[in-house]
């Protein structure tokens, strides 16, 4: 950074006023500032958990030995990813989830595909589990929980918490700077300005989408707005995400329920991956591509893909939504054969078939019959 002309100050920093901050006793003033302190893993308030000790998606990579038995609290994206990974490495894994499905925010059909694969891999999944306490018994760590009306427990060598992240807002002197914040992080407007218009915020500390790629996108908006007087908006972005289980689950835009809640009538097209030659060759036929359209219009509202390389493939739909392209346009895109991306083209073809109204079909039938008589 110094080679680029950036002055770097290392130490604990906190705002001391609306246009000043302090780094280890050194006072700095600014015309613009950006808060990019990120977020950290959090743990649910389970009695005894802090005393027993636990791992997070950050500290788990400090392990030097594979735990023989691993209990995972939470079967969201982090919990499912790490539960499957440790199971495949050889740990005996139990995942406890309070919701009635894994990946609680995802399409239920997508979540069901992942759950079946995790169970097939050997992960023991307990849904509807309410953890009452954690305790140590000798060398064992024990989670006591209630599920299905019965009290149960699971003993393990390590506990992994995959239950979300919290923004890092403590100790920054935000009150002195006049920067509002809450449980979800720093409050920003469409241009990522805080309540102090000199100060901006980007990344996990100010976004409900706590993804690395989203932090990068917001950083680009902040640079344009804070340094170059731009007026780029963070709202209206089409944000894709992916859960890196096997198979992967990728999504962009709205789910059908969300779209309907916002007043959209929805048409849905689903293409099973079992119809895709690449998926058959890879032995990965369990997934699907599902796209939601505004009824009567070629407007993509959202899409979900469950496949081996869903995270790579979903970007085509993200691009289409960003540039306001519909399935009719994607139907004209040539996709290499055999690839998973052909599922998008098949969905586009299905959309075109649905556009054939009875009247259009009769006209086409008359035209083709006339051509045969020539």
Please give a handful of descriptors for the protein shown:
28% strand; alpha+beta; four-stranded parallel sheet; Enolase-like, domain 1; five-stranded antiparallel sheet; 374 residues; FAD/NAD(P)-binding domain; 3 domains; flat
Topology of this structure?
Elements: E1 13-17, E2 20-23, E3 26-29, E4 33-35, E5 39-41, H1 49-52, E6 69-73, H2 77-89, E7 92-97, H3 108-121, E8 124-127, E9 130-137, E10 140-147, E11 150-156, E12 158-161, E13 165-167, H4 174-177, E14 181-182, E15 185-186, E16 199-201, H5 212-228, E17 240-243, E18 248-253, H6 256-261, E19 266-272, H7 277-282, E20 288-294, E21 300-307, H8 310-313, H9 315-322, H10 327-330, H11 342-354, H12 358-373
Describe this structure in words.
The protein is of the alpha+beta class. It has three domains: 2-30 and 169-228, FAD/NAD(P)-binding domain (3-Layer(bba) Sandwich); 49-165, FAD/NAD(P)-binding domain; 240-354, Enolase-like, domain 1. The protein contains twelve helices and 21 strands. It has helices spanning 49-52, 77-89, 108-121, 174-177, 212-228, 256-261, 277-282, 310-313, 315-322, 327-330, 342-354, 358-373; strands spanning 13-17, 20-23, 26-29, 33-35, 39-41, 69-73, 92-97, 124-127, 130-137, 140-147, 150-156, 158-161, 165-167, 181-182, 185-186, 199-201, 240-243, 248-253, 266-272, 288-294, 300-307. The strands form seven sheets. It has a five-stranded antiparallel β-sheet with strand order 17-18-21-20-19, with helices on both faces. Strand 10 (140-147) and strand 11 form a beta hairpin. The longest helix has 17 residues, at 212-228.
